[in-house]
């Protein structure tokens, strides 16, 4: 659950992934979004915290990029939170969560879910763009991701939920050797509160069962998705904080 995200992102042509012992970071100059710019693992010697934080922030700021710094069990020292908090424009928290793929989830039978293919990928594109409110650059990035997923179906699967035939929700799944990593679920505004999210969970669990994976993991926002998943039967494996740092924000010592 801790490391499911490592290597799960679909990179852009200019993405730079820094992956070494005690550190995992992605930088994507062409995408000024925290989705593709983040520090996920940061195990830093205590004496070097201020220097490493300052250098990392400067690296993103040179390219005008906002990014998020995740602090959880994969981070050290404990005072890293105290160093980052004054520098962050926004903070939120999430839960790393896990559930058996056999988990019983009661779904509305009027909602159907299908795996994205080349034939229905336009519906996936439209529902995802609407649900997340993507701008033109994000829509272009989504098109590239869809092409990548269709070419790497052994690892990535995307799903489309339909209500009365209309695409109203989407979600993703990364297949690992013994589990599935649930990512990117969203529902268009007009269909929220109808059980679309639950149906997307169950559809992904059904696929996991069919390919012999025993459980799923995910990272759920504490204020939104996590309570829904808890009610379904997911368990919390860990908690983490997220610090959003903007290119025009304060620096250490300000």
Description:
The protein has 6 helices and 12 strands. It has helices at 49-61, 80-84, 121-132, 136-151, 196-210, 225-232; strands at residues 16-20, 23-27, 38-43, 67-71, 75-76, 90-100, 111-115, 156-163, 166-175, 179-187, 215-221, 235-245. Strands 1, 2, 3, 4, 5, 6, 7, 8, 9, 10, 11 and 12 form a 12-stranded mixed β-sheet that branches. A hairpin with a 3-residue loop joins strand 9 (166-175) and strand 10 (179-187). The protein is globular, with a radius of gyration of 19 Å. The model has no long low-confidence stretch (mean pLDDT 94).
Summarize the structure.
It contains 6 helices and 12 strands.
Keywords:
27% helix, 254 residues, alpha+beta, twelve-stranded mixed beta sheet
What's the main sheet like? 12 strands, mixed
Quote the beta fraction. 25-35%
The overall pLDDT, averaged over residues, is: 94
The number of strands is 12
Q: What is the CA-CA span between the terminal residues? A: 36 Å
Approximately how much helix is present in the residues?
25-40%
Structural class: alpha+beta
Number of H- or I-type helical stretches: 6
């Amino acid at each position: 659950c801790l490391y499911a995200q490592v290597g799960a992102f679909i990179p852009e042509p200019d993405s730079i992934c820094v992956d070494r012992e005690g550190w995992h970071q992605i930088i994507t100059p062409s995408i000024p979004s925290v989705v593709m710019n983040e520090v996920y693992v940061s195990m830093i010697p205590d004496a070097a915290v201020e220097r490493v934080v300052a250098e990392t922030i400067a690296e993103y700021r040179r390219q005008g990029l906002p990014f998020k710094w995740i602090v959880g069990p994969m981070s050290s020292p404990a005072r890293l939170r105290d160093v980052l908090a004054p520098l962050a424009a926004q903070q939120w928290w999430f839960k790393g969560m896990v559930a058996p793929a056999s988990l019983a989830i009661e779904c509305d039978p009027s909602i159907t879910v299908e795996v994205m293919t080349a034939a229905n990928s336009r519906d996936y594109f439209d529902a995802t763009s609407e649900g997340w409110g993507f701008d033109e650059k994000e829509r272009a990035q989504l098109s590239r991701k869809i092409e990548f997923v269709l070419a790497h179906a052994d690892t990535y699967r995307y799903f489309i939920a339909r209500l009365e035939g209309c695409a109203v929700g989407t979600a993703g799944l990364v297949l690992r050797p013994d589990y599935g990593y649930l990512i990117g679920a969203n529902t268009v505004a007009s269909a929220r509160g109808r059980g679309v999210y639950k149906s997307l969970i169950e559809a992904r669990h059904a696929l996991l069962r069919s390919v012999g994976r025993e459980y799923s993991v995910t990272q759920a926002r504490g204020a939104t998705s996590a309570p829904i998943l808890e009610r379904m039967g997911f368990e919390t494996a860990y908690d983490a904080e997220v610090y959003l740092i903007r290119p025009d924000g304060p620096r250490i010592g300000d």
